[in-house]
Amino acid sequence: MKHDYVRPLDLRTGRIDMNHGAGGRASAQLVEQLFARAFDNEALRQGNDGALVDVPPGHRLVIATDAHVISPLFFPGGDIGSLAVHGTVNDVAMLGATPLYLAASFILEEGLALAELKRIVDSMAAASRAAGVPVVTGDTKVVEQGKGDGVFISTTGVGAVPAGRTIGGALARPGDAVLLSGTLGEHGVAVLSQRESLSFETSIVSDSAALHGLVASLLAAVPEGAVHVLRDPTRGGVATTLNEIARQSGVGMTLHEAAIPVRREVEGACELLGLDPLYVANEGKLVAIVAAAHAEAALAALRAHPLGRDAARIGEVTDDPHRFVQMATRFGGRRMVDWLSGEQLPRIC
Amino acid sequence: MRYIDEFRDGALAQRLAERIAAEVRPGRTYRFMEFCGGHTHALSRYGIAELLPPGIRMIHGPGCPVCVLPIGRIDQAIGLALERGALLATYGDVMRVPASGGLSLMRAKARGADIRMVYSAADALALAQANPSREVVFLAIGFETTTPPTALVIRRAAREGVANFSVLCCHVLTPSAITHILESAEVRAYGTVPIDGFVGPAHVSIVIGAGPYEHFAEEYRKPVVIAGFEPLDVMQAILMLVRQVNEGRAQVENEFARAVTRDGNLAAQAAVSEVFELRPAFEWRGLGEVPYSALRIRRAFAAFDAERRFGLAYAPVPDHKGCECGAILRGVKTPVDCRLFDTVCTPESPMGSCMVSTEGACAAHYSYGRFRDARLQGPAT
User: Fold this and answer.
1) Interface residue A332 vs chain B (CB under 8 A)
2) What is the pLDDT of residues B203-233, one digit of tens each?
3) A338 vs B368: CB contact, 8 Å cut-off?
4) Which of A267, B38, B73, B249 is found 20 to 30 A from A231 (Cα to Cα)?
5) A265: distance to nearest CA of chain B, Å?
6) CB distance from A146 to chain B under 8 Å?
7) Domains of chain B, with CATH numbers?
């Protein structure tokens, strides 16, 4: 009897074809030889349709999901794979939770080079291992050429938050301090610099990073309940994030432009492109709204962590029925910081 | 020297603000029109209004290229993309300008039109070269600043024999618009728009030079101070205008001397006059038909003129009835005078063109200055 021989996946010159999504042997081979191998962990090895996992006692679950459609797939400082891990891990962490597991689904476009897919999956697996958050279940589908853009990745994260901890967008109170964990706009500018239509040379790399370690350091440094809101300012930038919080909490804010950290290269690129760093996406920064009494301790904790070195206290929450976010400009005037309107930079995450 | 922070120095701004406050005559109102959207944006973004004494009123002018583009021109572009199957390339802000039938370029795109946003005219030509089987049309808008790049790509397309590229030329001219405002009934007859002087264009003046404004200063007795787009430039220019008014002078002064000369960029001017000629009339949103206020492509480059190539006829379309963009662009009204402002007209769904670009008076006020109205009106519900 012949061995059940199947020619291995050609990861050098092969491409995704419709067979890889048909659910037959080719699909199984793609999952086994690429995805399962890269993400390998105990839950995944169970080989079931879903993953059976433990929930830490005395905790509540946090679930967050995030779709990633970034173009280009590779950019300075990361790629769609690492971004899909960081984005979702951060969404879980912003509720003060410890991220535990990830689920991932991949929509692959017919014609995608397997070598590219392998680079993305390997990078995603590395990011997941570095974050300590395994991908425990997943799915792949293939769409015809022209109906996707190489690969779209959707990730869902599950995390655990101690019972009694409440951190959320509706909890900002007048008098609270607004902290920002670092410099603004690096992700958006790094991605933009790679766009075919406006490629420019820059040394800026994306800030894409998993922030749950930074959140844990912050929460450990102040009493439970001192941190009211955590949010990562991704699409729409810090301006939009702060407006969301102001609306949810029914408060206003005053920012101090001179206190907002922006790297010189980002400032220059934004000048050139007519962008405002306040509206440019970040993938490794967080905004923390903290009771004023604990603001300095919180700031010190952020600064002590490698991902929060450039953290700054950028403003305070005010009592404003209009829920306006205002800014005292470095120039000495005053203006509003409104929601992002329109699509300034499409497909950046 | 990094050429960013130097021109945004808060301490210097305070000193300039004190100077201006010291030099304005008590009880006198100084009304200055900043022609350019770039200045409107700087005034709003840096909160300059708060640094100026109450006697100084800034009137926003029509110098926002997206704002003055009439509905009929956008309709032409949409028609080319939706009905004629052309690949249409244009600058980003144009995408959201409202057109007829509830459409905009962005909405036409959602209906299947192939519309691409480009950062430069050269990118539009590159699109044509990359898609040789498609008709590629560049919707070219803007004042004298964006005109030379359009001239250069048309020249290059001609030289390289690019057969599938054309330009829908909507380039307009600054001096004719200023004349039109100064000749308008509101300024001359009714006195509803008293203008004591102009903050003159920054980038436009780099191209055309300071010379073309001398006519306004002499003929209409209006001081003009050409100013850069940085906030300190604007404040310095306001101080210079106050001094001219106080001394009864009406001259062209150049605050933006680091970039603007009297004659401008002669090479750019030569390229423009090689490719373009004056249009006898062009419709501006808000200003209506303005004679000799825009450019069209010369016959020698007819192959690259989308109007000729596709046999386009221009049909003017009236603005929305409640929209005050016209009066706002002429300086007769301010954004808050418009019933649509911040009700049905917002940056997310602009009814009028002034709400589209942040250089537009309405969008600038909405995005940066709205909190001042709230102070007057009391709490929101």
Assistant:
1) yes
2) 999 999 999 999 889 999 999 999 999 999 9
3) yes
4) A267
5) 11
6) no
7) 28-60+175-246 (3.40.50.11750), 71-172+294-309 (3.40.50.11740), 325-369 (no CATH)
Residue whose tokens read 């090479």: B267
- Tracing tokens 């006195």 back to the chain, one arrives at B191
- Kindly state whether B369 is in contact with chain A, defined as any CB-CB distance less than 8 angstroms: yes
Distances (CA, A) of A340 to A192, B40, B363: 17, 19, 12
Domains of chain A, earliest start first: 18-162 (3.30.1330.10), 177-336 (3.90.650.10)
ipTM confidence score: 0.81
Which range is least confidently modeled, A17-21, B227-231, B355-359?
A: B355-359
Question: B189 CB contacts (<8 Å, ≥6 apart)?
Answer: none
| Cα of B117 vs its chain's centroid, Å | 19
| 3-class secondary-structure state, position A178 | strand
Containing B171, the helix (H) or strand (E) segment is strand B165-171
| Number of CB atoms found within 10 A of residue B171's CB | 25
* In the block, residue with structure tokens 């007519």: A274
Least confident of A73-87, A276-290, B10-24, B49-63: B49-63
Q: What is the DSSP string of B48-110?
A: GGGGS-TTEEEEEEEE-TTTT--HHHHHHHHHHHHTS--EEEE-GGGGG---GGG--HHHHHH
B10 touches chain A (CB under 8 A): yes
How many angstroms from the chain centroid is the CA of residue B31? 20
Q: Tell me chain A's radius of gyration from C-alpha atoms.
A: 22
Query: Cβ contacts (< 8 Å) between B50 and chain A: which residues?
Result: 332-334
Which amino acid is residue B12, in one-letter code? Answer: L
Distance CA B206, CA B199 (A): 14
